[in-house]
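Continuing the batch. This is chain 6 of the set; chains 1 through 5 are on the previous pages. Same settings as before, nothing changed between runs. Recording input and output for traceability.
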Amino acid sequence: MADACLIIRRRAGCPRHRGPGILPGFKPIHSIFPNAGHSWHGAGCLCLLSVLASALVAAAADPPGRPWSDALLGDVTAWPHAERDSLVAATPQGLRVEVAAGHRDARAEASGLLLAADPGRIHVRVAQVGGGARWFVRLYGELRRPGEKQTLELLGDEAVAGEREVDIDPRLCQARGRQLQLQLGVEGAPGAFAVFGGVAFGPAGIRPNCQPRAAWQPGQLDIAAVELMPNLPQPFELIDWRDKARAYERLVFDAKARGEFLPLVWLDESHINLQRPTFGLPSYVGDPNQGPAKPDSQEGVTCMGAVLGATLVGVDMSRQQYDYVDMCEAWYNTGNGLNLVLNNQRGGTGGSFWYEMFTHIVFYALADRYPDKSRLTEIMRLTAERWRQASLGLADAKGRPDFNHTSYDFATRKPVDNGRWREPDAAAGMAWLQYAAWTKFHDPGFLAAAESSVQALQDLSSNPFYEVLLPYGTLTAARLNAELGRHYDVPRLLDWCFGVSDSRGGGGVLLGNWGGYDCDGLVGSLDNRGGYAIAMNTFAQAGALVPLARYQPQYARAIGKWMLNLTNSARLFYPGALPAGHETSAFWRGDPQHSIAYEGLRHEWLGMSPCATGDPLAMKWGPATDLGLYGSSYAGILGALVRPTTNPRILQLDCLATDFFRAPAYPTFLYYNPHPESRKITLPLGEKPVTVYDIAAKQILARNVSGEMELTVPADGAVIAVLAPAIGAVRSAGRQLLVEDIVVDSAWGPAPQ
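Output for chain 6:
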């Protein structure tokens, strides 16, 4: 009512509020309601104000929308909001949009359109393209939530005439009944043009393997995006991820390899931060800007990631031809005085939070897996304190840090905003780093910084996911809840991890069948030419969120289903996984085992769907191939997490494999059954007798068993099997169930009332 009064006060000169009188374009009150009288007091005033508010809101509302029709392409008056100086004309072939002199793009805009309810697919026919134009089709308006307007590029960077059809991710366009703007445009030099001959919206195609759920598992919670994925992705192929990661390690660290662009590894004698050699790997196969002749050209994300990936699949990287673990100290920037682990050996800060934090996450993970390396532990403590001080520098008067910036400059001790993007999920990266440091060193300052960072993350009103950090903060929140009895909103953070980013428009977990291949579960950009998944982001998210299941067993089914899809889809990053012509660098023959993945997988590229590709060749910025070592280095995450079982569609997920800095724990495995009926698998147990607990169902499955056992996994459900000593002393502490004082389940008992 206060808002209504404000409208009336400003527009109609309400006597009670001594407003400014009647403004141009607004009628006096008695011309609208001639029988209203002059009483502005008590209930009468309120009733009249209510009527006035309704009338004025209706008068100010948008005019009725009009259904979209191809006929509007022949009516130039339907596009009154064309970008200034764009050349827009109706022709017999359709709507012609041309770049005017002095400009680099042109756009025709038609507003107030009503599309088919929740459109799921767009079909575009472009009759003609000329002048080197690259055309696009976009929607603008309240696409996802009322009151918030976004731009969605449905098709972009298209260079040829013809017909294109793509599905629209249902999370990107939920505009039932809301008026939208359609934008048809071109980019290029003056004179570049495209003629749009047809634009049609319709429902998404039916995916036969995405059927309604046939069974419900008690106690399990859904993740909305995962429910849009198939239970049984097709075509299905489970590759041996452990072998894939080991083959990668053998190839990229082979200094004797010969052939085009080989060897990949080089010995770095630049001694920038170390008075001993280190090593380098290119971020892409055939990158002329990286190599032994160019000191500090190698990226820490690639090189340290390769050491970690190999470590996770059982290769001791401290006992190879060189001690590659010790060599990772080269990315600890002492030479410039920053004393941080950065992406370059002469690195700086203030450019991007994720680059500056993720290198620390990788380095800390190495410190966890090589505890005898005291120098790594020392660097971890020093850098964690540096980041804790940065957190304090970002804090407000109440001690709550604000990460809604591009980065933080450690030299000036101030946040950095570049005016182009912000990375608020740096709060998640900070939380993980500080909690890891607390578990290692037990300094209460680290715990305080971890908690203030999680709280800062939780206080955000929109999805902050920028690159790879958010899942690590989500895991940290789950651990704080389970281990310290906190009450952070993990469901909301998980929804963000699988939803659509508001920080980096269109970023998130992908859905859909691309050219006959189910490509659900990968991580990347939802709205880039129908979808663009990135290998590194996909592997990193798996490593962060599979461990979460043991702290929040109510998400066992959702995480298991997602990982079944991800594991199947991720094989398409690799050469040879798709038909001939569906990859951009098949000409390189230096990797016969196909151990180096493409940077990414596109829904469509060069007329092929899907297409294994990357940025270098498309953007022509240097590397000779799209094969990305910086992402392939992290395939060891899947190699550590995923194992086959006796049922080809039921995976074993090792919940401890990437749970760094955890407390002691017994073997813990997640099994998801995608079938509509229960299925049995064989569970190896080892020689010593164990008791098998299912912490998803809160029950004991078997006592005093060894060797192997038959395990029943419920229909469309999950089991988290914990193998604890059969003779161990069992006790409870609050909600926790412990065997020999090691926690088996953090939430075995009933929740407090």
